[in-house]
Recover the amino acids of this structure.
């Protein structure tokens, strides 16, 4: 894949990471597990992007966090908040609108 | 307990984080690194190599910390860059010429040992001023970039520059000629009546040969003629062939006697050259003579030709 193509693909996928995180974190999880779940779902994200992103979402109160110290390795679990849930619904709506719009344009259905 | 690569990496990250974020991120980052290393070991990588790989993937600790702290990785970013570059241009265009003239004048009025010494220290001072202007402007904008309250100035279409009109004479040309005329007259008066040096009797040593006498007056009249011509040109708004011819005659009237005087070494005052210790430069084959010769010839020829070219262009365009 050449640089131009990968650049545009990256640009297109950028905002979807946030949406995917909000959807997945409806069941609480910690950073590395989220990274694996995203990768398994086909959305590979680098750790150095995802971990700061989780902090940002927490600061914006879209996710809540809680330390789990039951296991040997303490882990910070994130969970989508009510506000995060609302935003995710709004983003999903926009995503499907965009899909419809682009499909229409592709098929030449626009006036 | 030995220090691991992870210890050093996490320490490097949290060092540039705000105090209250440190402990939390420290612990979470350690956990994340350990989880990733474990999964690499599970898939058959050697433990030491695995730890190294994971840390390489996380990348520069300063960059990661900037991500956590939501801090820009640039000094002056796209939000303020247009204002920044505009201000720098204005500052350099206005401040540097003023400072140059002011420092040079100050140096010359202080009776320096030689003109070139004064010129050299002026250039040095100008470079210092330019570096300071650049540094402090950049510093202020780097701080503005980091202040969340700053809103970039709303861009207004009225600030767009006018399109340059082809062949039209701009007011700035006429003004520039006026400034040029005043500085020539002022420079000549200063050179002949104030100069840099005084002789043993306290008399002024003029820069130009006092024997020039009438020639000096002739060049002053020519400078006045040039000024009048530029005003006329501005009123006409465009070059015409008669104006181009007058321009050519004017340049010939200047260049022929000027170059003749220059090549006969009768332009400068020998006493002045001796005092300033720059006489060799002004000999017939001296560096300054040759440079002045080339500049005067090229300047006069260029301006004379420009008149005809622009007249030709203006004649082809509808008025």
């Amino acid at each position: 894949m050449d640089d131009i193509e990968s650049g545009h693909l990256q640009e297109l996928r950028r905002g979807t990471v946030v949406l995917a995180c909000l959807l997945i974190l409806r069941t609480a999880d910690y950073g590395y597990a989220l990274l694996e779940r995203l990768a398994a779902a086909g959305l590979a994200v680098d750790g150095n992007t995802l971990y700061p992103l989780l902090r940002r979402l927490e600061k914006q109160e879209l996710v809540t966090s809680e330390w789990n110290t039951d296991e040997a390795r303490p882990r910070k679990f994130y969970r989508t908040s009510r506000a995060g849930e609302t935003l995710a619904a709004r983003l999903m709506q926009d995503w499907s609108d965009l899909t419809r719009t682009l499909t229409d344009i592709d098929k030449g259905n626009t006036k | 307990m030995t220090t691991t690569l992870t210890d050093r990496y996490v320490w490097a990250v949290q060092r540039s984080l705000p105090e209250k974020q440190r402990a939390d991120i420290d612990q979470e980052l350690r956990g994340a690194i350990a989880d990733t290393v474990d999964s690499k070991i599970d898939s058959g990588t050697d433990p030491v190599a695995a730890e190294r790989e994971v840390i390489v993937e996380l990348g520069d600790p300063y960059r990661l910390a900037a991500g956590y702290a939501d801090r820009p990785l640039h000094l002056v970013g796209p939000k303020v860059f247009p204002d920044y570059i505009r201000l720098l241009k204005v500052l350099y265009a206005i401040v540097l010429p003023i400072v140059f003239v002011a420092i040079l004048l100050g140096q010359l009025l202080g009776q320096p040992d030689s003109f070139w010494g004064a010129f050299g220290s002026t250039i040095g001072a100008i470079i210092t001023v330019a570096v300071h202007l650049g540094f402090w402007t950049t510093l202020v904008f780097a701080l503005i970039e980091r202040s969340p309250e700053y809103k970039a100035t709303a861009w207004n279409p009225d600030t767009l520059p006018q399109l340059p009109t082809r062949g039209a004479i701009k007011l700035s040309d006429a003004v520039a000629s006026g400034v040029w005329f005043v500085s020539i007259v002022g420079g000549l008066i200063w050179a002949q009546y104030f100069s840099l040096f005084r002789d043993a009797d306290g008399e002024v040593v003029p820069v130009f040969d006092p024997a020039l006498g009438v020639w000096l007056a002739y060049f002053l009249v020519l400078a006045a003629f040039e000024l009048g011509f530029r005003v006329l040109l501005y009123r006409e708004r465009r070059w015409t062939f008669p104006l181009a011819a007058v321009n050519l005659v004017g340049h010939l009237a200047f260049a022929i006697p000027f170059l003749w005087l220059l090549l006969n070494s009768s332009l400068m005052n020998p006493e002045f050259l001796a005092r300033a210790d720059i006489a060799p430069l002004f000999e017939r084959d001296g560096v300054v003579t040759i440079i002045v010769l080339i500049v005067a010839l090229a300047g006069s020829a260029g301006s004379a030709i420009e008149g005809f070219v622009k007249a030709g262009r203006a004649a082809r365009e509808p008025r």
